[in-house]
Amino acid sequence: MPILLILLLVSLLAYMVVIRRFAPWVPTRRRDLARIVRLLQLQKWDICYDLGSGDGTVALALAKYSHAKVIGIELFPPLYLIALLRSYFQKGNTPRFFLGDMKHHDISDATHVYVFWMGSTLNHDMVSFLRKKVRPGTLILSYIFPIESLPCIHEDRGENGTENPLRLYQV
Question: What is this structure's pTM?
């Protein structure tokens, strides 16, 4: 019982740290996954990073429906563990998941990056981070929130135009 209490306290502390540094975890809607997969158009030679991969939903879908190398990076340990567990049970192509701060990972080999960052997080330090870490020409797909300091090359709001926006940018 003491071990469970310690794990719970450590998880809560980690969650509080994550919330203070970034936005809280909000899952991507499952009904938007097909649009995300379609818009990224990953090929077998592509490398796609899901930065802030949460429970791995997007990374798992991208890996399942493409032959690309997909890598998820998550800061919050419980979500990272859920993603690992989910990838263990996925058949076929599976993503790799890493626990830690994305700023400490080399993502220079990325051809695509998926982000679901909220509001001002996108428009300050993170855009600077992306410009420093990825090569020119890398495609960035942002779920819902715009990246004001990058030119949007495509916006998708679903067939009826009322779905959550997906915006594609190029660094």
Answer: 0.85
